[in-house]
Design brief:
The complex is a heterodimer of chains A (222) and B (99). Chain A has 222 residues and is an all-alpha fold. Chain A is built from 11 helices and no strands. Chain B has 99 residues and is α+β, with helices and mostly antiparallel strands. Chain B has a single domain, classed as Winged helix-like DNA-binding domain superfamily/Winged helix DNA-binding domain (Arc Repressor Mutant, subunit A, Orthogonal Bundle). The relative contact order of chain B is 0.15. Classes of the chains: A mainly alpha (222), B alpha+beta (99). At the A-B interface, helix 2 and helix 3 of A face helix 2, helix 3 and strand 2 of B.
Chain lengths: 222, 99
């Protein structure tokens, strides 16, 4: 029997996103198989399969709830895109043009983070996505898979956003990149749209999920 | 297939041996999650019953869920077998009578 622990991140995901009704047995079964010699790769595949199959079953059983979760999530994204993000973007440009040098002083690193990478905007966007995920997850505590579905739907507009990279480079929103840095801008934009933002929704949404602690057992027969 | 695996395993039928049994007979990897989803569906239809076992150290303190076919489940398996047998009969392609 193997003594190593199964991959922690995947166990963490399984404990939160596996079908609620049989979660404890599922986690135990996969752990048992891992200790009997199954590979970490097998474990990861099983966790992913279990989450996806459970999500599909949940959605099939609660279509209306899923539709409601998507409607709430996307309404929140719309509100943010119309009112909050332009405000952040505007303040970034104002700060950049007027008080930029006051903000980062002599630091070239801070200047680059602000001008090239729009770091405060990225952080604020991640935080607002986290808040939206938190709201959707809080309203659907019994179906945490719905948060994953909402996060997955963000990938659809992400594709269009990434296709807009070349156009964005020409705007004042990305002043420091220039058209010559298209490849790096594409990598940067893709990692934000496909990884950072959906992940923020997932983290915010899973905040609500409580896992039941395993039963306390003792190896001592007495 | 899941119901047949349950009947074969008898009293020791929980997630791990059930998926092992299906894997051994199919020859390909089975997702434990999909086995559980199927079992839950069978339980809702009254074909399978379940009980929670004792937690063990090997499983990190997680209890096993044991599954048993109900009388209705056994009846359904017999019925499915009879139906399949009838369907198999008289198919020349499967009896080696084709040219």
């Amino acid at each position: 029997m193997r003594n190593a622990e199964p991959p922690r991140l995947w166990t963490w995901l399984l404990e939160r996103l596996a079908p609620r009704h049989r979660r404890e047995s599922l986690v135990g079964d996969l752990r048992e198989q891992f200790h009997r010699g199954r590979s970490a790769w097998w474990y990861r595949r099983q966790v992913l399969g279990t989450i996806l199959v459970g999500l599909a079953a949940d959605l099939a059983a609660h279509k209306l709830l899923a539709a409601r979760a998507l409607a709430i999530g996307w309404s929140a994204v719309y509100v943010m895109s119309q009112f909050v993000w332009p405000l952040i973007q505007q303040s970034r440009l104002t700060l950049f043009s007027r008080w930029g040098s006051l903000l980062w002083g002599e630091s070239e690193v801070l200047r680059r983070l602000w001008v090239y990478y729009g770091l405060p905007f990225v952080l604020m966007t991640c935080l607002t996505f986290m808040a939206i995920g938190w709201m959707v997850g809080g309203l659907h505590r019994r179906l945490p898979g719905i948060v994953a579905l909402f996060a997955a739907t963000l990938l659809i507009p992400a594709m269009f956003q990434v296709m807009e990279t070349r156009r964005l480079l020409a705007t004042e929103l990305w002043p420091g990149w220039g058209l010559g840095s298209f490849r790096w801008a594409l990598v940067f934009h893709t990692s934000l749209s496909f990884v950072a933002y959906p992940l923020s929704v997932l983290i915010g949404g899973l905040w609500h999920v409580r896992t039941e602690p395993p039963c306390l057992i003792s190896d001592d027969p007495l | 297939m899941v119901l047949l695996a349950l009947i074969r395993l008898g009293d020791d039928a929980y997630g791990v041996p059930i998926s092992d049994a299906i894997e051994a007979s199919c020859g390909r990897s089975v997702s434990v999650g999909s086995v559980y989803i199927t079992l839950e569906r069978l339980e809702r239809k009254g074909l399978v019953s379940s009980r929670l076992g004792e937690p063990t150290a090997e499983r990190g303190g997680r209890a096993k869920t044991y599954f048993h076919p109900t009388a209705k489940g056994l009846r359904e398996v017999r019925l499915a077998r009879r139906t399949l047998m009838r369907l198999w009969q008289g198919v020349p392609q499967l009896e080696g009578k084709t040219i």
